[in-house]
Design a protein that fits this description.
Number of domains: 2
Strand content: 15-25%
Radius of gyration: 20 Å
CATH topology of the largest domain: Rossmann fold
Strand order of the largest sheet: 5-4-3-9-10-12-11
CATH class of the largest domain: Alpha Beta
Structural class: alpha/beta
Shape: globular
Length: about 325
């Protein structure tokens, strides 16, 4: 019990966590030591190349200057592999949707450090809003947007199907933070504000046309809290679907009455429409799906193919 409390304290406080690692690299492995090569930097700084599709208008920077805590999973993945190593199929489909969706705002729900939000702000002139309740990830998203002159609005809010507060479980690497009590191992918990998307939109007066959702198994709650937005504005939705918790069945039941069409983003486009949303074949971190308000036009997949080729050049 005491050992677990000590571990939780160390995980919650970055300064203590960094100091602990500096001590452990001086110890032999038999006494709990760790390899210095596996210790992340306290602050990670690097340049992240961004794609440009051939023939697309030339907007935004060629690369992002990224500054984030060294132990966050997403910046570490991007630093090591670039965008080709970070869900390139989903990113290509997202960029293609931005070209085909009607005018309106882009909402990045569960933004983490804001990869999708930054791409939208760098390659379009749309209003971009990122929702991230985890404090460290939200600060990193703000820093990346500010350092690169991107007009991303970061909102410290968890979207769900009710208003009030929720207990956000912080994952060890800040990549799988979740409001679900059974979402896996947590290094700590933090109370965060919670609101339905429909209520937030009503107050903000935003007209959304593209919504990306990655809420670590809470995606059905985000959708149910935004049903009025989907009915009225018919945005294109990119949604993560993780295995377990019956997420696919719940999403199918919510979206079927709205006459949406769903496509699993896996492999190279084009993607075929699916009769239902399923979790089969998804990795532990889940797979991305496209929920389209109309059948996907052929031009969408050609655009996605071109963006994928551009992303592959950003290694």
């Amino acid at each position: 019990m005491v050992a677990g409390q000590v571990r939780a304290f160390v995980q919650r406080h970055p300064v203590v966590r960094h100091a602990t690692r500096r001590i452990r690299i001086r110890l032999p492995v038999s006494l709990g030591g760790i390899d210095p090569e596996h210790v992340p930097p306290r602050v990670r700084r690097f340049e992240l190349r961004l794609p440009r599709r051939a023939g697309a208008p030339r907007t935004g920077p060629d690369a992002l200057s990224v500054r984030a805590p060294g132990d966050l999973w997403t910046p570490g993945r991007l630093h090591a592999r670039g965008l080709p190593g970070y869900r390139p199929e989903a990113l290509a489909c997202f960029l293609a949707v931005l070209e085909h969706a009607r005018p309106g705002a882009v909402l990045d729900v569960g933004a983490n450090v804001g990869v999708y939000a930054a791409l939208a702000a760098a390659r379009t002139r749309r209003r971009v809003i990122a929702f991230e309740p985890a404090p460290r990830a939200a600060r990193a998203a703000r820093a990346i947007a500010a350092d690169n002159g991107l007009g991303v609005e970061v909102v410290d809010l968890a979207l769900s199907n009710h208003s009030g507060t929720g207990l956000l479980r912080l994952s060890p690497d800040d990549a799988s933070n979740s409001l679900l009590p059974a979402a896996g191992h947590a290094r700590g918990r933090v109370v965060v504000p919670v609101r339905p998307l429909s209520h937030w939109r009503e107050e903000a007066g935003v007209l959304p046309s593209v919504v990306k959702i990655s809420a670590c198994a809470s995606e059905p709650d985000v959708i149910s809290g935004g049903l009025e937005v989907l009915r009225r504005f018919r945005p294109w939705v990119l949604c993560e679907v993780r295995p377990g918790h019956g997420i696919g069945h719940r999403l199918t039941a919510l979206l079927e009455p709205l006459d949406y069409h769903w496509y699993r983003i896996s492999g190279r486009p084009p993607y075929e429409p699916r009769p239902s949303i399923s979790e089969s074949g998804a990795s532990k971190r889940g797979g991305m799906w496209l929920f389209a308000p109309t059948p996907a036009p052929e031009g969408l997949w050609r655009s996605a193919q071109a963006w994928r080729a551009a992303i592959d050049e950003c290694g």
